[in-house]
Amino acid sequence: MGVTLNELLISRDQRRAKQQQLIDKYQLTVVCLTIVMPGSEKLNQTTSYVANVAHECLLEVFKPYLKYNDFQELTTGPEGFYVVNLRALDAKQMTTEIEDTHPLGRLFDIDVLQSNLVPIMREEIGKESRHCLVCGEKSVDCIRNKRHSLDEVMARINQIVDSYKNSHR
Fold this sequence. Notes:
By secondary structure, the protein is of the alpha+beta class. It has five helices and four strands.
C-alpha cells in the first residue's frame, strides 16, 4: 500500500528533527540513509533488502568512528541515522565511494549533514552529480523533465537488485 504525499512530508520533517537532535546531542557529523524508490510504495521487499545492505555497508565503513546508529523500516521507507567522529567532508568522501562502487550503491541515498543541517553536495568533494538509473544522463534533468515513466525506473531498479541477488547466492 502506498503512502500519501502528506505522510512523506511529515516523515521528512520528523527525519529532519531527529537529525537536529543528533547534531545537538553529539556535536559530530550526522549521516542519514534513505533509499531511492520512486512512486508511493516506499516500504517493500526491495527497499527493505537494499536498505539492509546499505546499513551493513555503513556500519562496516564507519566502525572505527561510529558513536550512534539507528535503523528503522517505516511505511514511508527505510531510514538510518549514524553519528560519526569524522569531519563531514571525510564522511562524504566515504559515503560517495559506497554509492559509486557498490553494485546497489545507486539505490542508496546517503546524506552527510553539516551542523546547520545542510547536506554536503557531491560536487563539494569533486564528484559529479548522480546519473539517471535509466539513461545515464544527469538524474536531476530526467526527474525535472519527467523523461522516464515510473514503470521504466522500477524495471531498472528491479534489474539492479536482481543482478546483485543473483551474484550473491
